[in-house]
Amino acid sequence: MPNHKILTGPQTLMPNTETRFPEAHQDKFVVCGLGSLGQQIVINLKKFDYDPFEVHITAIDQQPIRNWEIDNLADQLAAEPILGDCRRETVLKAAGIEKSRAILIVTSNESTNVECAIAARRLNPNIQIILRSSRHSLNTLLARQLGKFVALDATELPAMSFALAGLGDDTVSVFNVGRHRFRVIERFVQAGEARFDQQPMQQLHQPRFRLLDLNPVENPPQPLGWATTASSVFHRWQPHVRIAAGDRIAYIEVDQPSEPMPRSNNPFFMAAQFIQFIDDIRTNDWQQRLKKLRKSSEESIERVVAVALLTAIVLWASGALLLKATVPGLAWVKAITLGAILLLGGYGDVFGGFDDPVTPGWVLLVCLMITLTSILVVLGVLGLVAERLLRSRFDFLQKQPRIPRSNHIVVVGLGRIGRKVTSLLVDLNQPLVAVDAQPRSQALFPQVPLLIGNVLEELTAANLATAKSIIAVTDDQMLNLE
Known about the structure:
This protein is an alpha/beta fold. It has helices spanning 36-46, 89-94, 110-123, 136-146, 157-167, 267-282, 286-299, 301-326, 332-343, 347-351, 361-393, 416-427, 455-461, 477-481, and strands spanning 25-32, 53-61, 82-83, 102-105, 128-132, 149-152, 171-177, 180-188, 209-215, 248-257, 409-412, 432-436, 450-452, 469-472.
C-alpha cells in the first residue's frame, strides 16, 4: 500500500466544520433558450455552486418545456422558466438582467440572439454576453461595439471534445491565454515516477506547472484539512504531504506558445534580434534561427521590400550629401546623380573621373561601403521575390505527405466540424490522416495526408489497424457507426 510521508514544516490552518462563513454571495445568470444546448449550460453552471457562493440561474424560453432532456433540471433553476420573447426588455427585466453577472443567449434563431444581445447591453452595460452565432464577421463587429462579448458557433463546440478524445491520453482540456497554450491533465501517479512519486506537493508549483487537485488513494495519517469553501476548492491539501503511487492528481502546465511573438520595426527590437542571432551562431542554433527568419520573410515580403526601399533612399541621400560636401565645385544635380550611380554599383564610373588628390581616401571607402550595401540589399530582395514566384509556380510538384504507419489519428469527414478537429490536432502536433468522400484541396491542410474516395475502403489505406484512434465526424450518422 502507498505511504504518505509528512515533512516537517509550518502547519496550515484550514477551516473546520464549526467555522462561520460570511453571508452567501449570489452570482446571477440568465439563460435564453432551453433547448439541448441551453439545458447543458444550466447543468454545467450549477457545478460552480459552492458554499458560500451560490449560482442563481433564470431561464427564458418562448414555449413551455414539456420534455426535459435532463432529469430534475427544473430544480436547478431559481424559478420557473419565463415564457416570452427574450428580445423584449420587459422579459429581460423580469429575468433580473439588471443585476445579473452574465447572459447566455443560445436560442436556435441567430437573428433573435443578436437582437437579444443588443437589448441586454442597453439594460446592463456591465453584463457579460455569451452568444450562439455562426456569423463570424458579425461576431467580430458585435465584439467591438458591445464589449464584454463572446460569440461561439454551436457546430464547432464539440470539435475540442472530439480532438481531446482522439488524443487517447489524460488531457482534460487545452486552451489559450494570449499567445500561450495551456494543457489541463488528470491522471494516476505510477510507482517510481520521478516527476511525482514521493514528491512533496509544495515543490510541484513551478513557473510552467501548477498542481490543481489531489485525490489520494488513502488518507494520510495527518488530515489533509479538506476545506468546504469555494476559495479552497483547488487547494484542499497541506503543502508538506507527499504524493504516492496510485494517487489521482490534476495539474495545469504551459504547453507552448500558440502563435509567434509579433515582430516590430523598432530599431532596438531589430538590434536585439541581431544579437540573438549572433548568440545562436555561437551556440550552434543558427540553422533554426535562419529557418525562422526565412519563414518570417516569406510571410511579410511587402514589409521586406518597404525596408529595402527605405534603406536605398537613405544610402542615396548619404552618398549625395557626402559627395557634395567633399568634392569642390560639385553641383547638387551632379551630386544626386552620382549618388544614384553608386546605388546601382557604378563605383568605378563615379570615381574614375576624379584625380586622386581631389577626393579624400575616407570618402572613397565610405562610398565603396554604400555601393556594397546597396548591391547586397538588391540581391536579397530579388532573391526573395524570385523564390516566392518559383514556389508558387511549382507547388503542383510537391508530394503528398506520407501516411503514418502507426500510433496516429484517423479523421473521417472534413466538413465543418472535421476541419476544426483537424486544425486542433495539427496545432497539437499530432500525426494524423484525413479521409473524406468529397474532393478536397490539399492546400486546406498541406501537412496532413488526405485520402479521397469510399470512406470504408480508404480506412485500410489509412493504416486504421495500427492507429491509436479514429474520429468519425461525417454528416451521415450511420456511416459514422460503420
